[in-house]
């Protein structure tokens, strides 16, 4: 598969493939986590606190994606490179926070490994968590390493790009 590098096409792909998917998947994962925590609260391995961790991640992601969609992405689509550096730096820091949230989810879920006696809801929850983790990691990689790198002067300098580079 060829990676999309055109900023306008990449932004459209990120919004459709990742933002919309995160918005759809997180409420259902939170619902399932609350159910598993309530029904299986006395069992070993129950992911106590998972629903709250997911709800916090959902709030962070919704806020983060709104900033991208209403502030940064329009700047990038309009070629306002000089105005993009600050929002990019802030959003990169938020990406680090999302990585920390994924670590907490892994800690609460034994690295997203359901116990042998887990019910179908518990197994479905963990399958959804694995998908969320994979999607979020790829989402962050595309933004940091492909999209943001085209507009971030520090990243372009690290890559050895000059003013005639095709990534700008």
UniProtKB/TrEMBL annotation:
InterPro entries: Hemerythrin-like (IPR012312), RIC_family (IPR019903)
Main localization category: cytoplasm
Keyword Iron set for record: yes
Cellular localisation: Cytoplasm
Entry-linked Pfam families: Hemerythrin
Domain annotation Hemerythrin-like: ranges: 11-150
Keyword terms of this UniProt record: Cytoplasm, Iron, Metal-binding
UniProt keyword annotation of Iron present: yes
Name the UniProt record assigns to this protein: Hemerythrin-like domain-containing protein
Source species taxonomy: Bacteria, Pseudomonadati, Pseudomonadota, Betaproteobacteria, Burkholderiales
